[in-house]
Amino acid sequence: MRYAHTVERVRAAEESLMRRLPEGALMQRAAAGLAATCLQLLAGGAERGAGRRGRGSRRVYGSRVVLLVGSGDNGGDALFAGARLAARGVRVTAVLLAGERTHAAGSAALLGAGGVLTQDQAAGLAQLGRADLVVDGIVGIGGRGGLRDSALPYVRAAERAGVPVVAVDLPSGVDADTGEVAGAAVRATVTVTFGTHKPGLLVDPGAQYAGVVRLVEIGIEPGPAAVEALQHADVAGLLPRPTAESDKYRRGVVGIAAGSDRYPGAAVLAVSSALHGGAGAVRYAGPAAAEVVRAHPEVLVTQGGPKAAGRVQAWVVGPGLSDGPEAERTLEEALAAGVPVLVDADGLRLLARRGAAPRAELLLTPHAGEAVALLAGAGVEATREQVEGARIGYARRIAELYGCTVLLKGSTTVVAGPDPAAPVRVNPTGTPWLATAGSGDVLSGLAGSLLAAGLAPVDAGSVAAYLHGLAARTVGEGPVTAAEVAAALPAAWRGVTGAA
Ligand SMILES: NC(=O)C1=CN([C@@H]2O[C@H](COP(=O)(O)OP(=O)(O)OC[C@H]3O[C@@H](n4cnc5c(N)ncnc54)[C@H](OP(=O)(O)O)[C@@H]3O)[C@@H](O)[C@H]2O)[C@@H](O)CC1
Ligand SMILES: Nc1ncnc2c1ncn2[C@@H]1O[C@H](COP(=O)(O)OP(=O)(O)O)[C@@H](O)[C@H]1O
Ligand SMILES: [K+]
């Protein structure tokens, strides 16, 4: 598991550790890690530079690095790292954005190592035009709001230079706790973050600005995480594995109530993905029964609603369900079954119309537009853009309002459970190629299968999102169809369990 902690926790852990260490020790640890990444990039990147010391050293010596330095310790880190680079023969110029308020010891260290400080805008911009690498030490976890106007000309010049940008702790302008970007932010090639990940580095839009994130351990122990991201080993540990005693019922039977005369395809996709998602059997209830059996003869079908379908361990209700009394009845019957229920797509709009009532057994899987409808159903106004800009907060909010688990889809999928003290899971495997019609139906079928196999809603949702992203990548870097993603799920599954 990868963990991310709030600024509040990082600060508390830093204070507690600093009391036990000599002054400046933590900053030196941070600066050493930061300088190591800069040297690696100057030497030709992690892959190309490794093992070719001679050539790498020549590229480092005499190369030009510009530090963008703000008023706080984030700038201090940049200055101390700059001093380390200067000691290796790098020509380092620090552009001071905050004049006299710059970290004094850091400035002295850089000057002592042969670096240059400037407060002159024209000189700073000229240096950026010649730089081989730029370090963003404008602001770190002390930042509030987006980048200030005074920093913009430098950030734009760094972008124009087209050289690697290394963000110190997090890209300036990204909110550390939420990933929100109010206005402009630095676009980093690599972010070197200290002590723990920050939530804003793992969730869009912030994650899009962070580039590759490297964690430098500095010894802090920040306690409970605010955000966590599954890795292969975690997923392998959560995936159900049949044993000698298993039969199809014990492995879990998932019911799919999806599709309509208008949208039979959603039913076929959700069923296909449920079949590939590890359930012992799949039951289908709805008007697309004929299409479903034609595509998947192993499915038990009924033309009626969930009540007519027989026993299942979890229901998936909503994809392609359409609107109207029949759809409403379908949702009612699934909710009345007394088993975990995943509600998606049209089911979410129907649920929102009923208003929010706490139901711990629900897993809701909205995209931003459906999230807006759910919020409205609970009397909260928000726009799609607001939801997309502050994904963690809105997923938590809906989970709290509906007293259940919420998987908010999109560029970063996040899963929040009903317990506000528990960490939110963010999915690290997503790919924008998944933004294709029907891909959400595939996610629902898979998550439903996992629910039926007995996974808790937060695990079912986050494991499904993980495999869904991997499956799309397994198909290849390029366009994928939803049906291809469903078909690639077993390969993604094997990739995870085989690697663990
Ligand atoms: N915690 C740890 O374990 C360790 C932390 N370390 C490092 O310390 C960093 C945190 O340092 P920090 O506390 O000095 O805050 P920091 O981010 O430099 O900003 C401070 C000043 O910026 C200003 N400012 C605010 N918003 C702004 C904006 N949008 N745009 C521009 N300026 C803005 C604001 O001043 P203002 O101008 O508002 O008076 C504020 O006072 C952390 O990220 C890490 O790099 C490591 O050294 C080792 C271990
Ligand atoms: N930009 C993106 N990056 C990564 N994944 C995305 C992106 N946009 C959408 N997705 C994923 O694609 C799927 C789309 O689901 P959904 O919006 O329900 O589409 P549909 O209704 O067509 O099935 C979700 O899993 C979502 O997380
Ligand atoms: K920064």
TrEMBL record:
Is the keyword Nucleus assigned to this protein?
no
Show the InterPro entries listed in the entry: CARKD, Nnr, Ribokinase-like, YjeF_N_dom, YjeF_N_dom_sf
Alphabetized UniProt keyword annotations: ATP-binding, Isomerase, Lyase, Metal-binding, Multifunctional enzyme, NAD, NADP, Nucleotide-binding, Potassium
Give EC number(s), comma-separated. Answer: 4.2.1.136, 5.1.99.6
Organism of origin: Streptacidiphilus cavernicola
Instruction: Tell me which residues make up the YjeF C-terminal domain.
Output: 231-496
Question: Main role?
Answer: Bifunctional enzyme that catalyzes the epimerization of the S- and R-forms of NAD(P)HX and the dehydration of the S-form of NAD(P)HX at the expense of ADP, which is converted to AMP. This allows the repair of both epimers of NAD(P)HX, a damaged form of NAD(P)H that is a result of enzymatic or heat-dependent hydration. Catalyzes the epimerization of the S- and R-forms of NAD(P)HX, a damaged form of NAD(P)H that is a result of enzymatic or heat-dependent hydration. This is a prerequisite for the S-specific NAD(P)H-hydrate dehydratase to allow the repair of both epimers of NAD(P)HX.
Cofactor, free-text remark:
Binds 1 potassium ion per subunit.
The parts of the chain that form a coiled coil are none
Q: Which residues form the YjeF N-terminal domain?
A: 10-226
The protein in question is named Bifunctional NAD(P)H-hydrate repair enzyme
Catalytically driven reaction(s): (6S)-NADHX + ADP = AMP + phosphate + NADH + H(+); (6R)-NADHX = (6S)-NADHX; (6S)-NADPHX + ADP = AMP + phosphate + NADPH + H(+); (6R)-NADPHX = (6S)-NADPHX
